[in-house]
Design a protein that fits this description.
The protein is an alpha+beta fold and about 160 residues long. It folds into 2 domains: about 1-95, Orthogonal Bundle (Arc Repressor Mutant, subunit A); about 100-155, Ferric-uptake regulator, C-terminal dimerisarion domain (Dna Ligase, domain 1, 2-Layer Sandwich). About 45% of the residues lie in helices and about 15% in strands. The protein has 6 helices and 6 strands; from the N terminus they run ααβααββββαβα. It has helices at about 10-20, 25-35, 45-55, 60-70, 120-135, 150-155, and strands at about 40, 75-80, 85-90, 100-105, 110-115, 145-150. The strands form 2 sheets. It has a 3-stranded antiparallel beta sheet with strand order 1-3-2. Strand 4 (about 100-105) and strand 5 (about 110-115) form a beta hairpin. Helix 2 (about 25-35) packs across helix 3 (about 45-55). The chain starts with 7 loop residues before the first helix and ends with a helix. The relative contact order is 0.12.
Length: about 160
Amino acid sequence: MPRGFGKGAMLWHGRFRKHGYRLTLPRQAILDVLSRTTKHLSAEEIYIEVHRIYPSIGLSTVYRTLELLVQVSLIFKFDFGDGKARYELIRSLEREYHYHHHLICTQCNRVIDYTEFIKDEMELFKKTEKNLSKKYGFKINRHIVQFYGVCDKCIRR
């Protein structure tokens, strides 16, 4: 396992082994970049950060690695309607994911993580998941909710 990375490295190493993969330097470097930000980075933005420290890691390696990280459930991949896939580290590797939703500005493409759920909202989502699972015989693992509109900064302009 590569040295000098954060405490998440051991958890990530276990997740890779569970899926029959090794935690390579490029994989670890990308996870490290994502662990240090709360932003939703594109592959190109991740590549720029990784390339600063590891110039031998190419953009195609970043793209392939990101797809693998999504496959082994270490990162989420989002489409916020700006023509670029965006990535976010799954902060909780336990069975229950840390749910949050996104507010996406259609003018400046700002993305705001919305985590301030009230009891009624959580009950509604749980009930909706339960009903959909029952109706369609579908086991729901997670959900993504994205609200599109105009952010406060763009409204003030």
